[in-house]
Amino acid sequence: IARRLCISRVDVGKNPEEPRRTEAQVVCEITVESDMANALGTLHGGCIALLLDVCTSLPCNLMAYEIRKSTACGVSQNINILYHAPGHMGSELRITSSLVSYGSRVISSRCEIWDKTHRRLIATGGQTMMQPSHPKTPDHAVLETALNPS
């Protein structure tokens, strides 16, 4: 499903009201197809969660590239979704995601999913991403003792 998302617009620039702040926005589009439906034949809530997760990551990745020349922006810490209306089979969706804040460890973005066909707001939500800590290397002596008790 995520591979069918079409990016229709990407914007990065300074906020006219806050010139020291850089903003990022990405707009994606997708058509609701049968593999996205629930038992009632409408857009499945889990599919909406997938679209929100993928699409809210895009402005974060964009900003990470602008600042660090790396698209690695972290892992999901929190995803919130508010469902407003059902999405119908064959409807064209427009998903607009915007960066909210970008810090050294935490990045947040928000998203609106609109049914372009029926001019209805389907869902809104946001995601907070964080830089994970490095994995702790195991103490091999303790590990060896645990695996091979005498």
SSE order and pairing:
Layout: E1 6-14, E2 22-31, H1 45-68, E3 75-83, E4 92-102, E5 106-115, E6 120-130, H2 140-147
Antiparallel strand pairs: 1-2, 2-4, 3-6, 4-5, 5-6
Textual characterization of the structure:
The protein has about 150 residues and is of the alpha+beta class. The protein contains two helices and six strands. The protein has a six-stranded antiparallel sheet, covered by helices on one side. β4 and β5 form a beta hairpin. The chain starts with 5 loop residues before the first strand and ends with a helix.
Defining traits:
single chain, 150 residues, alpha+beta, 40% strand
- The proportion of strand residues reads 35-45%
Helix content: 10-25%
Radius of gyration (Å): 20 Å
Judged by helices, strands and strand pairing, the structural class is alpha+beta
Outline the low-pLDDT stretches. none
Individual helix count: 2
Provide a brief overview of the structure.
The protein is α+β, with helices and mostly antiparallel strands and 150 residues long. It contains two helices and six strands.
